[in-house]
Amino acid sequence: MKKVGYLGPKGTFTEMAAKAVFPNAEGHQYKTIPSSIDGVINEEVDIAVVPLENAIEGSVNLTMDYLLHNVHLPIIGEVIVPIRQHLLGLQKNSGDLEAVRKVYSHPHAIAQCHNFLREQFPHAEIEYTNSTGEAARYIMEHPNELSVAIGNELAAEEYGLQILKHNIHDFENNHTRFIIVSNNTVLTKDHSPLYTKHKTTLMITLPSDYSGALHQVLSAFSWRKLNLSKIESRPTKTGLGNYFFVIDVDHGMDDILIPGVIAELEALQCSVRVLGSYPCYSINMNIIAK
Ligand SMILES: O=C(O)C(=O)C[C@]1(C(=O)O)C=C[C@@H](O)C=C1
């Protein structure tokens, strides 16, 4: 049986993502995103599932930078999960939300609910936790505090909390994209009925800063009619203004088009690292509810 590592404790969105794609795997919970990735490097687990991008908050830079700078681990899959943030608390505190002193959650969950928090709890303190699951567990463990958490319905169930308010995220179309990394596993379109398409992610470093450099890079994709679904620049961490580009191509690795792009970019003196070519899965609320 495969072992899958993810951000714990029980009741995180990452657990939802991992269980949707690997329903029969043995789950291992880690305290942070880097430690779940290290779990694969240290061979404690076969696979790690980590968040990479949220529709409201943007990229999870911690994940991106850890994969770019700290480890060499291929991306073997992607899963997109709808994110429904709820206000969670103990039943005994449910009657008096005005009395709430502190709101606990993961920084991204807090950021997804900024407007709600400003309107409903203008004077409450925000306490950041390593995950939404950790916030929910904290509320359960501290019944005498006048505190609430932001998290999902799995966490409410796991820690015996009540959903005090449903769907408190500020924008309806809230989704998070998780990536799956592994050294010993290859996923295919047949792995799961949630399959949608294949993608390839490339990390490209330009040789130097000259006019039209990025245009040349992009034209290698455009004349081959390769659609890009994301382009992002991240600091190389070698000095101000030094960046590389991370580009998602809506196309799996093949024998002609992607190798052609790579050869063309290398001829332009760019360096290219393939971060992964992988199947994408997408889940809906009905699957989560099961
Ligand atoms: O705290 C969790 O539940 C997580 O799985 C982390 C995380 C994130 O890092 O963005 C995942 C999905 C949501 O966007 C909020 C938090």
TrEMBL record:
Coiled coil: none
Class of enzymatic activity (EC top level): lyase
GO biological process, one term: L-phenylalanine biosynthetic process
Pfam families assigned: PDT
EC number: 4.2.1.51
Site, Essential for prephenate dehydratase activity: residue positions: 176
Keywords: Amino-acid biosynthesis, Aromatic amino acid biosynthesis, Lyase, Phenylalanine biosynthesis
PANTHER family tied to this protein: PREPHENATE DEHYDRATASE P PROTEIN, PREPHENATE DEHYDRATASE-RELATED
Stored NCBIfam families: PRK11898.1
Protein name: Prephenate dehydratase
